[in-house]
Amino acid sequence: MNAPAASQLSDRPDALRAEAETEAARLPALLARADHLAGAVLLGDHGRRRAGLGDDFWQYRPAQMGDSRRLIDHRRSARGDQEFVREREWQIAQSVMLWVDQGASMRFASTPDLPTKADRARLLGLACAILLVRGGERVGLTGTSLPPRRGTAQILRLAEMFTTDTHTDYAPPEHRAMIPSARAVFISDFMGDVEEVKLALTKAADRGVRGVLLHLLDPSEESFPFRGRTIFQSMGGSLTHETLKAGELKGRYLSRLADRKAELSALCALTGWQYGMHRTDASAQSALLWLYRALDTGSLK
Amino acid sequence: MTVLGGIGFTAPWLLLALLALPILWLILRAVPPAPIRRRFPGVALLLGLRDDEAVSDRTPWWLLLLRVLAVGLIILGLAGPVLNPDADQARGDGPLLIVLDGSWAGATRWPEQTDAIDAQLSRASRAGRTVAFLSLTRPQAPVFQTADSWRSRLPGLQPAPWQPDAARIAQMRSFIAEIDGFDTLWFSDGLDYPGREALLAGFEARGTVEVYQTAANVLAMRPAGFEDGEVTLTAVRATGGPEREVTVQALGLDPAGNAGVLGSTTTIFEPGETTAETSLDLPAELRARVTRFELQGQRSAGATTLADDALRRREVALIAGSANREGLPLLSPMHYVEKALVPTADLIRGDLGDVLPANPDVIILADVATLSDAEAEGLSTWIDAGGLLVRFAGPRVAASDVSRTDEDPLMPVRLRAGGRTVGGAMSWGEPKALAPFRDGSPFFGLSIPEDVQVTSQVMAQPDPTLADRVIAELTDGTPLVTRKAQEQGQIILFHVTATAEWSTLPLSGLFVQMLERLAISSATTRPDVTALEGTTWTPQQVMDGFGRLRDAGNLPGVPGADLLSAPPGPDMQPGIYVSGDRQLARNVITAEDALTPVSWPERIPVRGFAVPPEQPIAGWLLSLSIALLLVDVIASLALSGRLGGGKAARAALVLALMVPLNVPSPAQAQADDADLFALEATAELTLAYVMTGNRDIDEMSRAGLRGLSNTLIFRTSVEPAEPMGVDLEIDELAFFPIIYWPITPDQPRPSSEAYAKLNAYLRSGGLILFDTRDADVARFGQGSPNGRKLQDLAAPLDVPPLEPLPADHVLTRTFYLLQDFPGRHTGRDVWVEAAPPDAEQIDGMPFRNLNDGVTPVVIGGNDWASAWAVSNTGAPMVPVGRGFAGERQRELAFRFGVNLIMHVLTGNYKSDQVHVPALLDRLGQ
């Protein structure tokens, strides 16, 4: 493999954040799309800054069967014969949990021009986090290391957490301490054991957590441009495979990769997650856009 | 050496190694290429996949072939292959004598001859033969040495500007009589000379003789003659071949002092003819400058003929009867004669007694009536020896009794008393015009302008001889110019004054033409042997065999008779010889010489130089094999999939591509650079500084001009671009209005081409600001290193007289009103072009009306660049003075800069008197 560039993003949290900020700045804030979020369950702080309306007031609606009498707004109801209920804006912020694969397999780039997968994954994860925090959501990591919180300070913490590498070749998705009904974003190359992913997703589905699975691949992993006698090694060196004619393996490798994608996709469909593919030679902006939309549409469900 | 298929091998046994190539093939085939280790996260997906075939990729056959070929080429190369081995040559192994004619006739083909000798020497070296050299023009006893020791001395062989002669050949024969048993290679120049056959017989008695001789014809040129105002030139060739055109060039210093071609003409050898004549019509001014004639394309002393006094400017002595009337140049008796002669002749002035010893070609007496006896006698002797005396009449001649009753020896005719006046206020008749010149007159053919009129003249007495002596007359038949021959000289009398008082002749172009016609007949003729008897001539410059002139050093002088008659040789080298004021050219070929081609007997093999020399090709084969191995590197990388990704593979590819690629020619690159430079310099007004080679100084100059440019942009409508550094050697200067030249003691002196460019720049209106940066402590004397350097640098520059900047110089008021010109220092003087000496201050005017145009140089030592220098952010870079006073000084420095640029760009616009009232008002006067 080629050594990652010296100025790799993950080396410096502030640089990572700066770049993520610029990525995020290109998208309208999540709030700008709040119009599309019709008073649904999964609502953040949206609408609070609407002009002309009170801080907590949302709307009056005619009282219906089943409404508690305590909810009736007498001041409004006294103006006429009908009874009105004063509704307040629901202000439950959504928790979003990120899992960005920190495994060694992510630290791969086929050419020096391309970012490593880890770079791209962290960038996307953090940009997504910034968007969400701006929208008032709570963002954190899966597991217990960084529970979801709101506020820009959380972005700094996230950026710091992202810069720590793990040494295992293929890191399994972290599925402990999932907050019920929260949302989750998994970014990885999913080259490791697919059973771990299955376990994590089913567990998440059990807890009502829905989310997005972003499958991040290097172009060489999709094209397999190798020929000749080759010894393939995993990034951590734990796995090796020797072949005499690498070119002959291409077809079978690609079919296995397609199988893996299909498997992940099916898993997502089963658990109500969204599955997306992103290659490091594509622009990060498009991936972020997709991620953001996927989170949006997920919320409409 | 073994010869196989036309290629010789010095180590043929090495070729056996070629048998090992099939084994190499088998080994290479058996070994598979080494695996690549590759990091790849997708390996997880590969686990468990099996290869279809258990056999690895074999090395493909063509790669094997490539490698085997490369190894084969190495073996071939090490076996020492030689192209064109001299298999057909009768080879001896005894000593070898190489004989050279070594005369000027071989000079044109000298490089080819040297190559041919080199080939023979390398051949002899391989055969282990000892070699001796014998140059027939410079005989020395032959010494047999190894061929390699001669090869290193080969460049030292030079042709001599003479032919072998009988004495030297006799000497040679005595040399070879003492040696026996050698073969001879004779490099002939193609010309025959006495004694050659005897020498050949001597060589043949010792061993085999082979002759090498160029097929080209030998060309030469006879000395230039001078007839009817034209230079006659004759080219000769050794054998009369087919028609051939040759070009003769006249070389010399042009009026600007540069050596160059002053004129050229072509002539054609008719088929079979060995001589070709032509003539070259050059203006007298150019003709006088010609130093040599050459056949174009020939590089030999024989094809060069030197010009001497015969083509030189004539010396004319002017003697006027009356002393100059003060301050009336147009009335000076000699004014018109001088004007007419200055372009074509060297003028001598003085008393007759002083002039005569200088032996001028022509003496002109204007209105000189009486001469002392001694003067008359000297003059007469001088005329007898070939002098031309030209006399003009005038009031004194008319009033005197000279040549009245008896013909004066120094007058062509007898004169009547008083002369006559026609067409004046007190006389009858109309002014007389000139009659057409008669056939036989030297003026015949000149057209007479209608406005030439004669109002007064001296009259010739009718005489039996008068009719013969008249060479120009008036319409009424009275003589105007008369001539008389005396021994070898002539006496000519113009019956009018040399001024416009008596006639309008001196005002007309006819006068110049008449003088030229007369002066032509006074051209120096070539002296004969008797005239040179007893004189000694010292060589000034001598020619080598290539026709190049060099200083004669301390060669001894030669007797005058030998100079003309003796054949050229080491004691009589061709060249320029001087005796006193006279100059004579001794050429290789004299006017009578013909070239005799050499003819060899049938038994002697004669070869040309063009035998393809032996060429070892081991180097080529080894290079080719290395190239093949490079291809192999790339192919192997490509096969194993390493090409395209890795840096190493790309580097190898670049390396391989570099081998066959031609580096773009530097000349082309330079031309492109020059274009880019011109575009950059001319897109905007750009200030420039001279790059001194000292990085700090250059950076400071740049920053200084940047600061000045910024100031100009802020304050004036001049908006210069970023300043540029100029390299005086390379860059064109004409694009820049001003060049700042800081002086450092260690900067290199520009080449003469660069100085030519600088002078052209100064003449065409450029300005150079010299800055010694030393506060002018030494007042530009020798006291400071910068001052010395400035003097050294500026010496070749075309700088006018300078003066310290006067208080009313236009630089003091082109934009700001200034009296001081400080930079970082507040030195005293700034020097500019001096005002003309006649500039006077007029009462009531504050300024003199000074010279037009821009001063080409401004010289100072105030280190202006440092005062102007600003960094990229616009902050001053160098402190100036102290506190506020320092800032004021910096401001004044900027103002000086602004004034300077304004002066360069607007000239003396502010000197214009139109502005005087306003300026007076502002000055408070």
Question: How does this model look, in words?
Answer:
The complex is a heterodimer of chains A (301) and B (925). With 301 residues, chain A is α/β, with parallel strands linked by helices. Chain A has two domains: 28-46 and 94-300, Rossmann fold (3-Layer(aba) Sandwich), CATH 3.40.50; 57-88, no CATH class. Helix content of chain A is 36%, strand content 16%. Chain A has eight helices and nine strands. A five-stranded parallel sheet of chain A has the order 4-3-5-6-9, sandwiched between helices. Chain A has a two-stranded antiparallel sheet with strand order 1-2. In chain A, strands 7-8 form a two-stranded antiparallel sheet. In chain A, strand 3 (95-100), helix 3 (117-134) and strand 4 (138-141) form a beta-alpha-beta unit. The longest helix of chain A has 26 residues, at 246-271. Chain A is elongated and about 85 Å long. The two termini of chain A are 42 Å apart. Chain B has 25 helices and 42 strands. Residues 323-327, 520-525 and 660-664 of chain B have low confidence and may be disordered. Chain B is an alpha/beta fold and 925 residues long. In chain B, the strands form ten sheets. In chain B, strands 19-18-20-21-28-27-26 form a seven-stranded mixed sheet. In chain B, strand 11 and strand 12 (230-237) form a beta hairpin. The longest helix of chain B is centred in the last third of the chain and has 24 residues, at 883-906. Chain A binds chain B through residues 1-2, 105-106, 108, 110-111, 117, 170, 189, 191-192, 218, 220-221, 224-235, 239-249, 252-253, 256-257, 260, and chain B through 32-47, 49, 51-57, 639-641, 645. Strand 7 (230-233) of chain A pairs parallel with strand 3 (36-39) of chain B, so a sheet runs across the interface.
